[in-house]
Design a protein that fits this description.
The protein is α/β, with parallel strands linked by helices. Helices cover about 35% and strands about 15% of the residues. The structure holds N-carbamoyl-L-aspartate.
Length: about 325
């Protein structure tokens, strides 16, 4: 494979992550400097699942780099309804665009699709698998609001089983020697495979069924939505829905500096009264999606230009972890 794909944070080295975050900071400080940088580039958006932030911030990102986006549109309006395979769809779309962003309900879909495309492919969520560009903006936000990444104590609460943003974030945090506290009901614990990978990479991890004992230690509290659409049984969803909520009163026991993040959308896991506390950073976090995705595209396109024939410094084909 000649191209660099961004499929999983398990393949992103610390150096690759920092390259994206540093570039994003440069872009955020002076967006005008890159306004025409990729004027000839087209980004293909292929979303087989609903999306607001990810789709629109990728679209904003390519436009703010001077390029343009083409959007497959909803599954209902595409040839997928005629029975076209994912492999055929992405193979064709990769001839229309300089990079593809793919979201799909099946875990492993992005990896599989990347085998069929001739341009860089970014995984924007594969079922309960991974969502690496979300992690990059999560880390950017932690660096911005918690003052750095090394040695942070991070609480990750909610749906740890189906939450792909959690799986991506947990793997990336191991590169920064974070202490990770996972808070969930027993039925929504991290999947065995994710726990195994964390253990193998020497992560400092603890699991809890309640936030109470650990809240006071946290630099960051990352709250997630219960992923209703991934529950095989609606009754199972109902059993856990509404648990693991925080409100302003909950945060009275948090450190004054504790930053509350959430990938959004939220349902009711963060009460609106948290929005007015100094802890809340989730809306700024969402806004960071634009400069971070601009940086990611910029680095991918520069890598795809080849120059000296070397691969791009990010993603699964180049610059990954030494494993
Ligand atoms: C997340 C996702 O799609 O995984 N949303 C997002 O991209 N910001 C989180 C979620 O849907 O709960």
């Amino acid at each position: 494979m000649d191209h660099d794909h961004v499929i999983s944070t398990r393949e992103l080295s610390r150096a690759a992550i920092e390259r994206v975050l540093d570039r994003a900071a440069e872009i955020a400080a002076d967006p005008g400097a890159v306004a025409d940088r990729h004027a000839d580039r087209v980004l293909g958006l292929c979303f087989f699942e609903p999306s607001t932030r990810t789709r629109m911030s990728f679209e904003a990102a390519i436009k703010r780099l001077g390029g343009d986006a083409i959007d497959m549109g909803g599954v209902d309006s595409s040839s997928v309804t005629k029975g076209e395979s994912l492999a055929d769809t992405v193979r064709v779309l990769s001839g229309y665009a300089d990079a593809l962003v793919l979201r799909h309900p099946s875990e492993g879909a992005a990896r599989m699709a990347s085998e069929f495309v001739s341009v860089p492919l970014i995984n924007a969520g594969d079922g309960a698998g991974q969502h690496p560009s979300q992690t990059l903006l999560d880390l950017y936000s932690m660096r911005e609001f918690a003052g750095g990444l090394d040695g942070l104590t991070v609480g990750i609460m909610g749906d740890l089983k189906y939450g792909r943003t959690v799986h991506s974030l947990a793997a990336a945090l191991t590169e920064f020697d974070a202490r990770q506290h996972f808070v969930s009901p027993e039925s929504l614990r991290l999947p065995r495979g994710v726990r195994y990978d964390l253990h193998e990479s020497g992560a400092r991890v603890r699991e809890h069924e309640s936030l109470e004992g650990v809240l006071g230690e946290l630099d960051v509290l990352y709250v997630t939505r219960i992923q209703r659409e991934r529950f095989p049984d609606e009754n199972e969803y109902r059993k856990v829905a509404g648990e693991y909520r925080i409100d302003a009163a909950t945060l009275e026991d948090a450190r004054a500096e504790c930053v509350v993040l959430h990938p959004l959308p939220r349902v009711d896991e963060i009460a609106p009264d948290v929005d007015d506390t100094p802890h809340a950073a989730y809306f700024e976090q969402a806004h960071n999606g634009v400069p971070v995705r601009m940086a990611l595209l910029d680095l991918l396109f520069d890598g795809a230009n080849g120059g000296n024939g070397e691969q791009s410094p990010i993603g699964s084909a180049g610059g990954g972890r030494d494993r």
